[in-house]
Amino acid sequence: MNLKNKLKNLPTSPGVYLMKDVKHKVIYVGKAKHLKNRVKSYFQKKADNRLYTEYLVRRVADIDFVLTETEKEALILENNLIKQFKPKFNINLRDDKTFISIKLEVNKKFPYPKVVRQIDDDGAMYFGPYASARAVRETLRYIHDTIPIRKCPDNVFKTRVKPCLYYQIHKCLGPCCGLVDEITYEGLLDQVILILKGKQEDLIGILKQQMREESKALRYEKAAKIRDRIRAIEETVEKQRIHSMTFVDRDVFGYYIARDEVYLEVMFIRSGNMEDVASYHFPTNHTTIEEVFRSFLNQFYSQTRFIPSEVIIPVESADARLLEEWLTEKKGKRVEVIHPQRGDKMRLIEMAQKNAENAYQVSRTHDENFTRTLKTLKESLMLRHVPERIECFDISNIFGKQAVGSMVTFELGKPDKSKYKRFKIKTVGQIDDYAMMYEVLTRRYKRAVEEGDLPNLLMVDGGKGQLGVALKVFEDLAIGNVDLIALAKGRNQGDTLGEKIGEQIFKPHMSDPIVLASSSPELLFLDKVRDEAHRFAVTYHRKLRDKEYYRSPLDEISGIGIARKRKLMRCFGSIEGIRNATLEQLMEIGKIPSRQANEIFHYFHRPETVTTQTSNCHV
């Protein structure tokens, strides 16, 4: 059915529409309460007065529909399809800011604050979100310095037989060894919760009362400890606070439009405190700011994250009511989406708007500075091109084993992780870094030549030897329009007391290396690229090495997965403990079904297994 006929036979129910170009590629996904009215509006003159409508419609060759029962189902499906197809004309939120929360399992015995990235419906309390690990570390450090709560993880807590150093320095009350009762510990938890909710003033009042009671009872040492805790809290209670009439949890959004990009800022306010901020920016694609926010908010809250009581936005949203209903259902409590016109909430919007503008200014300054850095790098290294796209390679192995190669890509000075590649060495079995580099470069650039996907600059970690390998690959593949360098680490000249030589940059057909000033932005940038390639290679190498190292006889028994292996090791302490266990102990202590317990017992008591040395086995 052609497009004209489809427009004549549009359904009237709620659903999602997928606009496609002549190559049948999805270029836009939208949702509608009434599909017929919504889709037809695109093809009417001056439809919705949206700037991008005409620009979009000229590229539409076909439209598909997915019908839903309700508009809310259409909203959820729209988000999923945007993630799946990544349409050109949609705001596509690729949120790599995996927000961190602090989890307190108040439904368990002697809990402690954990750092998590997933919020589950498990009865625990969650606090956050925090956009940076630094903010979480500072919060937890403050809690651990102030409240003598447990600090060790579950696996250590369950096996500890004597108090740790924290107990000795009065930073923990020793719940692992039964040195504190649950009621007293719950009192500490209440204090932690007050801090995480930003209610330090309430906590100070409680602690002052406790201090007076201890003093009256002549327990002066305990009173002094509480006094010190009060002072520590009072020193931080003056931290930045957004004063408001109430202490509700809020997400406040602001924006700033610059040319064809929009910068969005989110301020996370929890119990009146500014906990953290996050910045995003997108190309506008000729889209109105109302449409940007509609799509952004829907995608933003479709991910697993903390949902506040109020979502404060700077523009009217056509989906405000629908978003309220959806978020209320997800949170289990009333959520309001508010577009304020005056008052305290409007001032919060203004603050978010200023932060969005500042994010743009910082980004522009960085881009301008980095453009100069890349141009200077071209001149300093006598390159043919400004190195707007750099690919850097590194090799990682231990005595030739588990050898891997890595490639990282930097576009305009920023890492593009979607183009990172890693290689498991296939053709080299001995210690030969040159042969390994030759294999990796050949595999990468043979395909790059076929696809026309070459960088401006190729950089290898090493000296003249690695450079020679790269040059040989380029000659074999007839690559002649890509700049090539090798970056060698600094070293001492002569004996150990000799003069330190800085980083050296080698180029083809040049006998002497180029040495840049150690503090120059150009060299610091190249170091950053090389270090990222090294990190990526080492991470992959460790993954393969650990996979080989952590093998266990239990892997050879069918039906024994990772969870059951861990459970057995926790119950019996080691492979030797499992070997020495009776059939009844495997079933009772290890909680293993009789069939699997029989398999484990008979495996370890076969003649060939009994004589096997297991002292080096790991799980």
Question: Which bin fits the share of residues in helices?
Answer: 40-55%
Number of domains: 5
Percent range for β-strand residues = 15-25%
Using the CA coordinates, give the radius of gyration. 31 Å
Main location: cytoplasm
Function: The UvrABC repair system catalyzes the recognition and processing of DNA lesions. UvrC both incises the 5' and 3' sides of the lesion. The N-terminal half is responsible for the 3' incision and the C-terminal half is responsible for the 5' incision.
Domain UvrC family homology region profile: 252-474
Domain GIY-YIG: 12-91
Question: Would you kindly provide a written description of the structure presented here, covering whatever features stand out?
Answer:
The chain has 619 residues and is an alpha+beta fold. The model is unreliable at 237-245, 493-498 and 609-619 (pLDDT under 50). It folds into five domains: 3-85, GIY-YIG endonuclease (3-Layer(aba) Sandwich), CATH 3.40.1440.10; 100-236, no CATH class; 250-360, Nucleotidyltransferase, domain 5 (2-Layer Sandwich), CATH 3.30.420; 389-537, 2-Layer Sandwich (Nucleotidyltransferase, domain 5); 553-610, Orthogonal Bundle (DNA polymerase, domain 1). The chain is 43% helix and 18% strand.
Helix and strand topology:
Blueprint: H1 3-8, E1 15-20, E2 26-32, H2 35-42, H3 53-57, E3 62-67, H4 71-85, E4 100-104, E5 114-116, E6 125-130, H5 133-146, H6 154-159, H7 165-168, H8 182-196, H9 200-216, H10 220-236, E7 250-258, E8 261-270, E9 273-283, H11 289-300, E10 310-312, H12 320-331, E11 336-338, H13 344-380, E12 389-398, E13 401-411, E14 414-415, E15 421-424, H14 433-451, E16 457-461, H15 464-476, E17 483-488, E18 491-492, E19 500-501, E20 504-506, H16 521-549, H17 562-572, H18 575-580, H19 583-588, H20 594-604, H21 607-610
Parallel strand pairs: 7-10, 10-11, 12-16, 16-17
Antiparallel strand pairs: 1-2, 1-3, 4-5, 4-6, 7-8, 8-9, 12-13, 13-14, 13-15, 17-20, 18-19
Helix pairs in contact: 9-10, 14-15
